[in-house]
Amino acid sequence: MDHDAHHAHHAHHARHPHDAHGATWATAVRATLHCLTGCAVGEILGMVVGTALMWGNVPTMVLAITLAFVFGYSFTLVAVVRAGVSLKAAVKVALAADTVSIAVMELVDNAIIALTPGAMDAHLSDGLFWSALLGGFAVAFVITTPVNKWMIGRGKGHAVVHAHH
Questions:
Q1: How many CB atoms lie within 10 A of CB 122?
Q2: What is the rounded end-to-end Cα distance, in angstroms, of the chain?
Q3: Is 38 within 8 Å of 73 (Cβ atoms)?
Q4: Contact of 7 with 137, CB cutoff 8 Å
């Protein structure tokens, strides 16, 4: 998108930040996918590292969840800093925008992995591990999208991020 089109696009959003029902589903889906990408990168990296170091399930999950938050926040941070916001302000925006989203996503995803018989003991080379992980992300996406839509509709969460784009 060229510079003028970019400003016109955002000027439109500034005039009409919400429709009558709060945020649009498209905005909520984009926000959720953005968050999910960071979560997935962090979580898969954590699983790979934990497995490579032959850690048990608990330290591997702790590392995976920690990295999911780190990558989830960093994806938002990069976007907000690129928009010209100071790092300090961007950190506040990322924390406000992503904490609920990442927490819901990780809770759902890890619950599904924990509840899938054999998934906790499956190895990275097992189809069961990947199907439980990806299935968990799919369910987390479906649950987190309405949460994000509700938060954006109330000017919270990713609405804060979009105000800086």
A1: 18
A2: 13
A3: yes
A4: no
